[in-house]
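Suppose a classmate hands you a notebook page containing two proteins, each written out with its sequence and a corresponding row of C-alpha cells. How would you begin to make sense of it? This section walks through that situation. The first entry is reproduced here exactly as it would appear on such a page.
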Amino acid sequence: MAFFDKLNNFANAASEKASGAIEIGKLNLKLGTEEKKIDDATMKLGASFLERLDAGSEYDEAILAIYEEIKASRAAIASIKAELANLTGAMICTSCHAKNPPESKYCRECGNKLETEAPEAPVEIVEVLCPTCGAAIEADEKFCTSCGTKLD
C-alpha cells in the first residue's frame, strides 16, 4: 500500500504544479491582451489626434476617452503583474513595474526601494559582485538589488 500512497502523493503534487502553471499561463494571456489593448488604443489616439490636428481642432472628449482606455489597461496590467508576482514569488517594483528576484530589496531596473521585503535568501557566489556591498548580482542588472547602487 505504501507504493500506491507514494504514487498518489506524486500525482497530487504534479497536478498542483500543473494547475499553477496553467494559472500563470492564463495571467500571461490576460497581460498580453491588456498590452494589446494599449497598443490599439494608442493607434486610435494617434489617428484621432492627427485627424483633429489636420482639421485645426483642439483637444476634445474623444481624445480624452481614448486616453482613459489606456489608463484602464495600464491599471489592469499592474494588477495582473502583481498577481503573477504573487504566484511566482517575484517582487514587482511599484515605480517602474520591473520584475525582480524574491529576495530583492531594490529594483534592478530603476534602483527604487521595493515596498515589501522578502525573506533573506543565502547569497550565491557568482562571477559578478556589487562594488558597494559585495552582494551577488546578475551581469545585466542596472542596480544592485541589495543596496540600490547604480551599476555600470
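The notebook's second entry, a different protein, reads as follows.
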Amino acid sequence: MRHRYRRLLLLFAAALLLSACSAIRLGYGNVDSLARWWMDQYLDFTPEQDALVRERVLRFHAWHRQSQLRDYAGLLQDASKLVAARPGAADTLALSDGIIRRVRVLADKAIPDTADLLATLAPAQIDRMATRLAEKNADHAKEARLAEGEIGQRKAREKRLLERAEFWFGGFSDEQEAAIRRLIGAQPTGSQFWYEERLRRQREWLDLARRVQRERPPRATVAAWLRDYADGFDLPADPVRRGQALALRRASAELAVAVHALTTGAQREHALNKFEDLIRELTELAQEG
C-alpha cells in the first residue's frame, strides 16, 4: 500500500532527524517488520498478502540501505553547513525540496510493488482502511486543536515548534522563547489548510484503491495511476490552493531562519553535534549493508 508505506518512510525520515542514534539503529533494523505491522493495521492482511508484503518490504529495505543512506548523510552534511552559517529562506526551502525529492525516489521505487498489492485488495479491506484513516484524522484534529479556531491552533503550533527547536538547539532563555512565540504568532498557522490537504490526499488514495478493485486493470495501468497520484501528492492541482501551499512553505522557511538568528554559538554547536551523530550513524548503517 503505497500511501501508507510512504507515510511510514516519511516518519522514519523524521526519526532520523529527531531521535537518538541508538533509536535510529534499532528502528532502522526493524523497519521492515514495522512497515508490515503498520500496513496490517489498516488492511488486515490475508496470509497470501502478508507473504507478498514481507518479501517486497525486505527487498525494498535492502535496496534502501545500499543506495539511499549515504545520500541522506550527504543531505545532513548540507543541513549542518546551514546551521553553522547564516542561512536565508531560500537555503531552507532548497533543503526542504531536497527532502521531498528523496521521498519521491522512495515512492517511485515502491510503485510496482504497490500496484501488485492493490490488485489483491477486497472491498472490505478498503473500507477498513477508510475507517482507520478517519480515526487517525480525528486524533490529528484533536492534537492540532482545529476545533478551537485560530487561537487554539496557534497554541498547538507553538508547542510543536518550540519542542522541535529545543531538541536541536537545547533549552532557550525566557527572552528567546518569548521572541520565538512572537515570531510564530505573526504567521498564519496553516493548520486547517494542511488538514484539508491531508483529507484530499486520502480521498484520492481511496478513490484509486476502489477503482483498482472495481476495474481490475493491468499492472501497467495501475502503476500509471500511482505515478499520477504521486505527482499531485505534495501540492494541490488547484492554482489558488497551490499558491497558498507555497506561501505557507515559505513562511515556515522564514520562521526557521528567524529562530536560527536568535540562537547563541553554544546552541548552534549543540545542533552541530546532533548532526554529526546522525551522519555517523547513517554512514555506519550503510556500511553494515
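A careful reader of the second entry would note: The chain has one domain: 2-288.
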